[in-house]
Amino acid sequence: MRIESDLKLGFKDVMIRPKRSTLKSRSQVSLQREFKFLHANNSWEGIPVIAANMDTVGTFNMATALAKNKLITAIHKHYSITDWNAFIANAPKDIGDYIAISTGIKPKDVKKLASILEVNSTIKFICIDVANGYSERFADFVKQTRETYPNKVIIAGNVVTGEMVEELLLAGSDIIKVGIGPGSVCTTRVKTGVGYPQLSAIIECAEAAHGLGGQIISDGGCSSPGDIAKAFGAGADFVMLGGMLAGHNESGGELVERNGKPFKQFYGMSSTTAMKKHVGEVAEYRASEGKIVEVPFRGDVETTLQDILGGLRSTCTYVGALRLKELTKRTTFIRVAEQENRIYTE
Ligand code: 5GP
């Protein structure tokens, strides 16, 4: 046993220090980024925010809404091939640039990925997603997927430490998904004791990835536009959102009424609810590592999106970043013992 005693921080432990700026208005700020990738001979342009591949978030309807603003949706892995084909037939022509196909690492996942791509070859991103990206089998799977799809942008995760970011990039991924345990409906830290404060995970993993020419996605733990700004400030190239995009018309999950008010279901992908829905049962050897909640219904996602993008533009203005790309360089975090004033929120 060993104890590492350097302090690891989460979003709640810091604020971004304002800096002198020559920007006159937040409308001058550009949130668009352009990326070239480590392996895929490809580039991408858009706003680097991604809807999570959860069936209560990363739906086809979400993809249609987010793509209008050039944001990505990681489509959850439970749609059938027929659903995929029907969606692509109606979707805008450039939708392939703004969706990722999610896949696990079982033989049936490989087959399904191939069938989706066979008919929908313009989809740019493949998201190979497992709860624990530390297994040798996972890195081998990334290697095989890279051999099969030399020109797709491969996202792999989740991990939280630099050495595993490097291993997965060297195995053939372009982008590494970072986050173990910070998610709003995740119970991994409670069930297993395993995890890593998200802000430090981003800082350490971004350094490892950028050193090799790769990128990272900060996945999980953002509960406000300010947290998203902190994730970008810490070095994330992309930020993935679950809970912040749940509860809308475009989100999945049943609409329910409580005391006359509308709510939508939102649940973790390894919650008992999700496992029963998609696999039929919770396998005996595993515990549920996610919970189910009901979030207030919030109408169209466009309104929330404008709130998020407005917040980010404002952060950039406070630190004098004309483009989102400059935000990390312009960020100085201060450690704090307080966040917002909650007098009217409890
Ligand atoms: P949020 O933005 O809601 O804080 O976090 C979303 C992320 O939580 C997802 O992208 C995914 O990485 C993670 N997640 C989703 N469902 C589960 C689950 O059931 N268990 C765990 N441990 N993490 C989950």
Describe this structure in words.
By secondary structure, this protein is α/β, with parallel strands linked by helices. It is 33% helix and 19% strand. It is built from 11 helices and 15 strands. The strands form 4 sheets. Strands 4-5-6-7-8-9-10-11 form an 8-stranded parallel β-barrel, surrounded by 6 helices. A hairpin with a 2-residue loop joins β12 (255-258) and β13 (261-267). α8 (225-234) crosses α10. It is globular and about 55 Å long. The termini are far apart. The mean pLDDT is 95. The site of guanosine-5'-monophosphate has 25 residues, from β11.
Q: What is the rounded distance between the termini?
A: 41 Å
What is the helix tally?
11
Radius of gyration: 19 Å
Shape: globular
| Order of strands, widest sheet | 4-5-6-7-8-9-10-11
Secondary-structure-derived class: alpha/beta
Mean pLDDT metric: 95
Profile the largest sheet: 8 strands, parallel, barrel
Q: How would you classify the quaternary structure?
A: single chain
Strand content: 15-25%
Distinct small molecules: guanosine-5'-monophosphate
**Helical proportion?**
25-40%
User: Which parts are unreliable, with pLDDT below 50 for 5 consecutive residues or more?
Assistant: none
- Helices and strands, in order, run as EEEEHEHEHEHEHEHHEHEEEHEHHE
Number of strands: 15
